[in-house]
């Protein structure tokens, strides 16, 4: 971070949904039941509401809404034969728990002309509806079937296949989310393959990092059973993300030596396969090779308050934030950074483009990041969520008020900008474009 004060290999298990799992299978898969089959413990009624606006409500108003929704949920939701049953009305049944990266499994059964869905992080939705012509919604896309991300506008909204079962039969859903990327297996068939789930509430911002699971009510009886979930741990998520579209990426760090690197290597050390800035040291270390258009993937780990940066298209001399571009690597949740400018958040192109905030993993966890440069277009994706998507050609004046001639460079080295903290980097891979 420049000029700041104090300056896979994982294979998806069970690629098809196996139907109702036994208790032993659930435990082995790390899945935990979301419903006890007797009552609504672990759930509450909650109306459809923009999560950002919900969080901003005065406590008294939010409490009043929840009390009203609890009374309505008691009228419209019940447990019958171990299943959650809704009559098509009332507030959405909402988990008390919030989820980030997670896997969900459930079964549902509905009736003709019903229309429902699964809200992920309180955001619509994995679509459930009557896909027959008699249902009357072919004009809205119901002919394509359930199991898609119907509320998407810029990314694929339709399921890859139509897999609905006849009314009266139970349908199975397996849903996974890593960041904003979503996978859906519907009745044993892949219907959504790693598609970005858009933020329906504010399409200028990415999908929320965390939130509850919600079961939508929408005009017809629906039953849910065998609801289960598991948190996807960071190591698994990182391996999965690294394996996506991995063709063409080659390692640029052998995990043991600085072979292929140059610059202030004395300010860095190699520990457990990672490049780590020495405490109290700074300076830049960078690849001997240069790149024009490229994609870089890496994992990084931040200590409390950790501060570093990615030098891109660096010429080998000068402050990378200005002589090239520096992409922030920063524990921006630490109290010492309470007064950051938006262009100083983690992932920002320093002084030029602000990043979306709130997508770092907890302190001490390894994060996965991808940076793509294509001409003047730069994207930064953190833990599966795009936090920067910018065209540098559109920048008339730098946000920090300083000249940034480096933003116009066509090529250069890739490296790290030390700022005295022991930030670690590993699994560094680059694909020229």
Structural class by sheet pairing and helices: mainly beta
From the N-terminal CA to the C-terminal CA, the straight-line distance is 26 Å
What percentage of residues falls in helices of 4 or more residues? 10-25%
CATH superfamily of the largest domain: Exo-inulinase, domain 1
Strand content: 35-45%
Q: What would your notes on this structure say?
A:
With 433 residues, this protein is mainly beta. It folds into two domains: 23-238, Jelly Rolls (Sandwich), CATH 2.60.120; 245-432, Exo-inulinase, domain 1 (Jelly Rolls, Sandwich), CATH 2.60.120. The chain has helices at residues 23-29, 51-56, 59-76, 234-243, 320-323; strands at 32-33, 43-46, 77-80, 83-86, 92-95, 102-110, 115-120, 123-129, 171-178, 181-186, 189-196, 213-215, 222-231, 250-251, 261-263, 268-271, 274-277, 282-287, 294-301, 307-314, 325-330, 366-374, 377-382, 385-391, 413-419, 424-432.
Quick structural summary:
The chain has 433 residues and is mainly beta. It has 5 helices and 26 strands.
Question: Could you name the key traits of this structure?
Answer:
10% helix; elongated; mainly beta; Jelly Rolls; 8-stranded antiparallel sheet; single chain; disordered N terminus; 36% strand; 26 strands; 433 residues
Write the layout of secondary structure elements.
Layout: H1 23-29, E1 32-33, E2 43-46, H2 51-56, H3 59-76, E3 77-80, E4 83-86, E5 92-95, E6 102-110, E7 115-120, E8 123-129, E9 171-178, E10 181-186, E11 189-196, E12 213-215, E13 222-231, H4 234-243, E14 250-251, E15 261-263, E16 268-271, E17 274-277, E18 282-287, E19 294-301, E20 307-314, H5 320-323, E21 325-330, E22 366-374, E23 377-382, E24 385-391, E25 413-419, E26 424-432
Antiparallel strand pairs: 1-13, 2-5, 3-4, 4-13, 5-12, 6-9, 6-13, 7-8, 7-12, 9-10, 10-11, 14-26, 15-18, 16-17, 17-26, 18-25, 19-22, 19-26, 20-21, 20-25, 22-23, 23-24
């Amino acid at each position: 971070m420049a000029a700041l004060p104090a300056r896979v290999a994982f294979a998806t298990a069970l690629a098809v949904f196996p139907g109702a799992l036994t208790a032993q299978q659930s435990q082995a898969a790390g899945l935990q039941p979301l419903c006890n089959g007797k009552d609504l413990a672990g759930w509450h009624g909650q109306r459809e509401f923009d999560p950002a606006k919900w969080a901003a409500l005065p406590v008294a108003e939010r409490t009043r809404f929840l009390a009203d929704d609890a009374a309505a949920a008691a009228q419209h939701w019940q447990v019958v034969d171990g299943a959650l049953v809704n009559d098509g009305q009332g507030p959405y049944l909402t988990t008390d728990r919030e989820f980030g990266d997670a896997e969900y499994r459930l079964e549902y059964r509905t009736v003709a002309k019903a229309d429902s869905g699964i809200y992920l992080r309180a955001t619509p939705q994995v679509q459930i509806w009557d896909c027959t012509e008699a249902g009357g919604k072919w004009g809205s896309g119901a002919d394509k079937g359930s199991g898609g991300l119907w509320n998407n506008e810029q990314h694929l909204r339709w399921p890859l296949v139509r897999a609905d079962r006849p009314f009266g039969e139970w349908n199975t859903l397996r849903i996974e989310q890593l960041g904003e990327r979503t996978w859906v297996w519907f009745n044993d068939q892949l219907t959504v393959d790693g598609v970005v789930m858009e933020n329906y509430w504010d399409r200028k911002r990415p999908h929320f990092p965390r939130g509850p699971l919600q079961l939508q009510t929408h005009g017809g009886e629906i039953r849910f059973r065998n609801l289960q979930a598991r948190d996807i741990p960071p190591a698994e998520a990182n391996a999965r993300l690294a394996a996506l579209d991995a063709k063409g990426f080659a390692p640029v760090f052998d995990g043991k030596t600085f072979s292929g690197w140059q610059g202030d290597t004395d300010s860095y050390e190699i520990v457990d396969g990672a490049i780590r800035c020495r405490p109290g040291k700074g300076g830049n270390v960078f690849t001997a090779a240069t790149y024009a258009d490229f994609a870089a993937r890496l994992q990084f780990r931040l200590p409390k308050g950790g501060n570093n940066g990615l030098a891109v298209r660096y010429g080998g001399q000068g402050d990378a934030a200005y002589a090239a571009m520096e992409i922030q690597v920063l524990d921006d949740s630490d109290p010492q950074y309470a007064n950051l400018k938006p262009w100083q958040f983690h992932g920002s192109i320093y002084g030029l483009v602000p990043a979306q905030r709130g997508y770092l993993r907890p302190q001490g966890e390894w994060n996965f990041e991808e940076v793509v440069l294509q001409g003047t277009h730069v994207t930064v994706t953190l833990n599966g969520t795009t936090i920067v998507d910018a065209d540098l050609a559109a920048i008339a004046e730098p946000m920090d008020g300083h000249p940034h001639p480096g933003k116009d460079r066509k090529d250069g080295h890739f490296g790290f900008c030390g700022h005295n903290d022991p930030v670690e980097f590993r699994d560094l891979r680059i694909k020229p474009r």
